[in-house]
Specification:
CATH superfamily of the largest domain: Intergrase catalytic core
Largest sheet: 3 strands, antiparallel
Strand content: 5-15%
Keywords: DNA recombination, DNA-binding
GO molecular function, one term: DNA binding
CATH architecture of the largest domain: Orthogonal Bundle
Number of domains: 4
Number of strands: 8
Structural class: mainly alpha
Protein name: Tyr recombinase domain-containing protein
Family: Belongs to the 'phage' integrase family.
Radius of gyration: 35 Å
Helix content: 40-55%
Strand order of the largest sheet: 1-2-3
Pfam family, one: Phage_int_SAM_5
Oligomer: single chain
Low-confidence stretches: 400-405
Shape: elongated
């Protein structure tokens, strides 16, 4: 096979002189008479350019830096040429240029981008980013870092090296060696997807390594209070004032569907008084920024009246109830009210969705609007029919159709008696 003729040089484009008096430095690749040009991204004053050597003249720091860059670029071009000749046996100037341009593209590091993302979000914690969400970012980064170090022996990894094998390996590592739940693994996967999206935006990576990946999703169960359990929480005497106040706030959420954080943000201006005398809550949820529209049920209205008196439009209605205080109070309230499944504050929202609304015929679309969901698919999680609801519906059906069922049963009995006589 005849050997290709190959040459590379640098020159300045004098016809493109800029306002600062400098000209762009161009590179030229020639293979078998075919020529291609490319920009080096550098520029120099014409009087400081040595056309014969293809380098800058002078001993200034700027010219030295440019010359070092051009030398490195020339060596890179020659090395890539040799590599492609060995791999393909035949190479064109255009192909070599494309390969060099691909190598010159920025190739960010995964953990570097993760840490940059975390630092960008840090000032937003408690404002546009919830504290638990921010904690998940940090925890997910730590787990990815552990996988890189323990399984791959790396301190970080470039985006172009991320593929399906990397994700599958991370998934296996989190399950087998870390023994993490599917819910925790999902936190890592969601954050990794976010980082991949950042890499694609910054042109670090073109192919989505998640294309063929299907995560094993955790089976989520929405725990809620049944009608009988809710009655116990309503009627059981509680002497401790702190627990009694926490019960009132829990019940307010159970009869409005507000999450604890949104209940804490509630102000008198969010209470709308309608012309027909009814009241409703209108507040944008912190999590989704979607407005929740909730008609006030009598019990919620009574609890609200205990706290809203003398409050101005922008005053917070309810006293501060931190996650720690809410959790501690719920444990004790659950024991006092004999709630065996373990009471948590977020069960109030689930109780409103399932026991208060869906079990009483409220449509999924209406519930979605009251809960402030951005996607009705989220609301449909609550759509599982409870055993209690099945029992209630069938009892009502039996009562309505009792006479028909009774006549049918008697008819069957008569037919059976006739057969026995025959």
């Amino acid at each position: 096979m005849a050997r290709s003729t190959f040459n590379t040089l640098f020159y300045i484009n004098r016809s493109k002189e800029k306002k600062n008096g400098k000209c762009p430095i161009m590179g030229r690749i020639t293979i078998d008479g075919e020529q291609v040009q490319y920009s080096t991204g550098k520029e120099i004053a014409p009087e400081l350019w040595d056309s014969r050597k293809g380098r800058c003249k002078g001993t200034g720091e700027e010219t030295k830096e440019i010359n070092r860059y051009l030398q490195t670029k020339e060596e890179q071009t020659k090395a890539k040429y040799q590599e492609l000749v060995w791999q393909r046996g035949y190479i064109t100037a255009e192909l070599l240029k494309r390969e060099l341009m691909e190598e010159d593209k920025p190739k960010g590091f995964l953990l570097e981008e993760a840490r940059l993302f975390i630092e960008e979000k840090r000032p937003c914690v408690g404002i546009t980013v919830a504290k638990p969400t921010f904690a998940n970012y940090i925890y997910a980064t730590q787990l990815i870092e552990a996988y890189l170090r323990e399984r791959l022996g790396l301190e970080d990894i470039r985006y172009p090296l991320l593929d399906y094998g990397f994700i599958d390996g991370l998934d296996f590592y989190l399950k087998s060696e870390r023994n993490l739940s599917l819910a925790t693994i999902q936190i890592v996967v969601i954050f990794l997807r976010k980082l991949i999206g950042i890499g694609q935006q910054k042109k670090y990576i073109r192919i989505d390594p998640f294309a063929d990946y299907k995560a094993e999703l955790p089976h989520r169960t929405r725990r809620y209070l049944t009608t009988e359990e809710l009655q116990r929480v309503l009627q059981t005497p509680i002497i401790d004032k702190q627990f009694e106040r926490a019960r009132q706030l829990f019940l307010f959420c159970a009869f409005t569907g507000l999450a604890r954080v949104d209940m804490q943000r509630l102000k008198p201006k969010h209470i709308i008084h309608n012309a027909d005398g009814t009241e409703e809550i209108r507040i944008k949820r912190q999590k989704t920024n979607v407005e929740a529209i909730i008609p006030l049920l009598p019990i919620a209205g009574q609890i609200l009246s205990l706290y809203i008196k003398d409050k101005k439009a922008d005053d917070l209605i309810f006293p501060n109830l931190t996650i720690r205080k809410a959790s501690f109070a719920c444990v004790n309230i659950g024991q006092i009210c004999r709630i065996e499944k373990g009471l948590t504050f977020h069960m109030a929202r689930h109780t409103f969705s399932t026991t208060i609304c869906l079990s009483n015929g409220i449509s999924m679309e209406t519930l979605s609007k009251m809960l402030g969901h951005s996607n009705i698919g989220t609301t449909q999680i609550y759509g599982k029919i409870t055993d209690h609801k099945i029992h209630e519906d069938m009892t009502a059906l039996t009562d309505r159709e009792h006479s028909v069922f009774e006549s049918y049963c008697k008819s069957i009995a008569r037919q059976s008696a006739v057969k026995q006589q025959a």
